[in-house]
Amino acid sequence: MLSQFLFKRIDNAQLVVFRIFYGLLVSVECYGAIATGWVRRTLVEPQFTFSFIGFEWLQPLPGNGMYIYFAIMGTLGLFIAFGYKYRFSALAFAILWTGVYLMQKTSYNNHYYLLMLLAYIMAFLPADRDASLDAKLNPRLRTQTMYNWVRWFIVLQLLIMYTYASIAKLYGDWFDLSIIELLMQPKKDYFLIGELLQTKWAHKIIAFFGILFDLLIVPALLWKPSRKIAFVLAIFFHLFNSIVFQIGIFPYLSLAFTVFFFEPQTIRNLFLKTKKVIPESKTITSKSKNIIMVVLGIYFSFQLFLPLRHHFFKDDVLWTEEGHRLSWRMMLRSRSGNITFRVVNIQTKDTTIINLSDYLTKKQRRKVACYPDFIWQFAQYLKKDYAEKGENVQVFAKNKVRVNQAPRRQLVDPTVDLASVPWKHFTHNDWILPSVQD
Fold first, then answer.
1. Which residues lie below 8 Å from residue 82, measured CB to CB, with a gap of 6+?
2. Dihedral of the alpha carbons of 86, 122, 29, 49, in degrees to the nearest 10
3. Which candidate, 85, 146, 145, 131, places its Cα nearest to that of 270?
4. How many Å separate Cα 269 from the centre of its chain?
5. Per residue in 386-395, pLDDT tens?
6. How far apart are CA 311 and CA 321, in angstroms?
7. Whole-angstrom Cα distance, residue 201 to residue 204?
8. Cross-sheet strand order for the sheet of 409-410
9. For position 370, what pLDDT does the model report?
10. Contact 78, 27 (CB under 8 A)
């Protein structure tokens, strides 16, 4: 039964139109990153970037290299939109975007993770089979159908993302509105809406609408009677996020996903007016059916597990950050703190207090002050930097951190030499002090 459902041939208008939106949006993201100075601030100016742990070898290109890197990605986005050399362009973009994602996390957000997943998904989907230069240059490639699993792959990915995002909001600081208040405070100078965003009733609407929207938007779009209302709410929700939080292309990418929920005839009438509607056809056996089923099963098993892994770490993820990334935990916390790094020469016992401004940008300093993995990585960097000067050193850190509106507490053990302890990926790092302290 499942096999028959997944391998039924359906109209591919949804995928084809989404390919165009997706390509244009990632092109805007990449060219925009150059134009707005994001590339300069994040990848060119810093003398040291905080890569994902284990990928320290992946560093930004020197000179103007990263500008060229992003220009290439932007051009690949246009190739994707026009369906030119699609497989190569989509896969090349996925690899290059993964490089950017892994080489820096100072500007991390879940939307970059979603784009990385989507980039690989799109690279292996038959999105260039119509309304593309590839199909025009090679007519044998053209088809107006696809397997049903292609559409449901996207839908299920969205369902997982939104559902986990909703569940993550079911905690005290969201319900008592304290995190909403913190998130809105920097927006008080916004034109027209700034003062409105500081009111309690606005915080209540944002909090409960956020939970309900994430939980219900995919089912509401799937159900035809509620589809149009859900689409209007989606426009409001994502435009609100775009204006208030200024999170790049993500709101518009989210709106582009809605093409998968409307009838192919509607999509063709709006965007492919010269194309006729293709009726659903009977199930066609694919030679790769078993392989596809196994790959889908493995992929979605990971997608279901990763957002839960923080439950297997000791203490609260809001405090330790262990298991936070790759888990759709969005807009849940605000961290602030201060930190002092003390470098001790093992031979002479001479002690140096580090001036962070000598090494890090302002944004990097904010991260190092209150995120455990940033603290550990900077300790490793200091050890390496001093080793190049011929000194063998220990690195100690003392800091106080505030998560949301909780009292400031000490995050790391000041007696532990952070330069000598390994980072544990799958178990709790014991030098992170408990969230509840005497």
1. 23, 132, 133
2. -110
3. 131
4. 33
5. 999 999 999 9
6. 11
7. 5
8. 351-353, 335-345, 393-403, 409-410
9. 95
10. yes
| Residue 296 pLDDT greater than 80, yes or no | yes
Q: What is the residue type of 27?
A: S
Cα gap 16→238, rounded to integer Å: 23
pLDDT digits (tens, 9 = 90+) for 362-411: 999 999 999 999 999 999 999 999 999 999 999 999 999 999 999 999 99
Letter for the amino acid at 257?
A: F
Who's near 318: CB < 8 A, 6+ residues apart? 171, 332, 333, 403, 404, 435
pLDDT in tens, 219-236: 999 999 999 999 999 999
Over the Cα atoms of the chain, what is R_g? 24
Contacts 24+ apart (CB under 8 A), 384-387: 386/343, 386/345
Domain limits of the chain? 2-161+205-305, 334-438
Could you give the C-alpha distances from 200 to 178, 191, 207, 213, 364, in angstroms and in order?
10, 19, 10, 20, 32
Q: Which two tokens stand for residue 289?
A: 């059916």
**Overall size of the chain counted in residues:** 438
- In whole angstroms, how far apart are CA 72 and each of 64, 78, 390? 13, 10, 40
Band of the pLDDT at 4, cuts 50, 70, 90?
Answer: confident
User: Tokens 């230069």 appear where?
Assistant: 133
Which among 347, 427, 334, 423 is positioned nearest to 387, based on CA atoms?
A: 347
> Residue 289: is its pLDDT beyond 90?
no
CB 264 within 8 A of CB 11: yes
